[in-house]
Amino acid sequence: MSSGAQTRKEKADSSGRKTCPRNNTRGRGVTNFHEATVRVRYAETDQLGVVYHSNFFVWFEVGRVELLRQIGFTYKEMERQDDCHIMVVEVACRYLRPARYDDLLRVRTRVAKVRNRSMKFEYEVVQSETGELLATGSTSHVICDGKGKPKMLLEKYRKYFGVGEK
User: 130-149 burial, b for 16+ CB within 10 Å, e for fewer?
Assistant: First the structure.
């Protein structure tokens, strides 16, 4: 891909900066992005007002939890009712531009892959006012019981993710 190429997730505005279009978030399929909004707090920044890098991982969790709520169940229900925990085993984040104090951000989250005992989420963090894409990332998870032993993702949850994907 040439340096001027654009992915389906991003486009360049007139200044050449990457921006992210607003996609439909109402679908229930694995490929649809769901959005949560966060505002950058002063405590999340350094002395220059730039967000400290690890806060993006906290926002990824916000996105994950809200995605589950938007598609029809809560992570809390999974844990309490079914002893089903989604344990993080790998994280990645590509920082493209800084987030700053008091920015309103959209954390766009989707389920990228679901298997019998694992799943992967993908994220985009977008500056709400400008549409600028600030970061992309992913988390990989293993489904475990409360003692950390891997287990199958229950059928009652699999249906929400359009499982059959391998």
Answer: ebbbbbbbbbbbbbbeeeee
